[in-house]
Amino acid sequence: MQTKTFFALGLAAVLATPVAAVAQSAQTKATVDAAKAAGIVGEQADGFLGFVTAAPDPAIKAAVTETNAGRAQLYDQAAAKNGVTAAAAGAAAYQGVVQAKLRPGDYYRPTGGGWTRR
Fold this sequence. Notes:
Helix 1 crosses helix 3, helix 2 crosses helix 3 and helix 3 crosses helix 4 (86-100). The chain has one domain. It has a 4-stranded mixed sheet with strand order 2-1-3-4. It contains 4 helices and 4 strands; from the N terminus they run ααββααββ. 57% of the residues lie in helices and 10% in strands. Strand 1 (41-44) and strand 2 (49-51) form a beta hairpin. Mean pLDDT is 86; it is low at 16-21.
């Protein structure tokens, strides 16, 4: 259990550190936030955004792709720093998001489950 806590703290430090290569533009963040509020995009157990509904707008697709690329870089960094896989880093980030950052009405999809609304 102590290793899990240490990993989570290390991951939190990596995710809180601004990294130029993974910085989201203000427009991308606004697009993703609006898509989450509209129930189009949600958080997945692997730590990446996914589409709750089919056929999203091209601007939303582009924003999700940019965000997920940035997250992949963060998870790679966290994995290297903590001696785990990028998949484990993404899953840990998902847990943090679900526990602390989801707003009422946001969607999330746990491993092996369907989309759930908070």
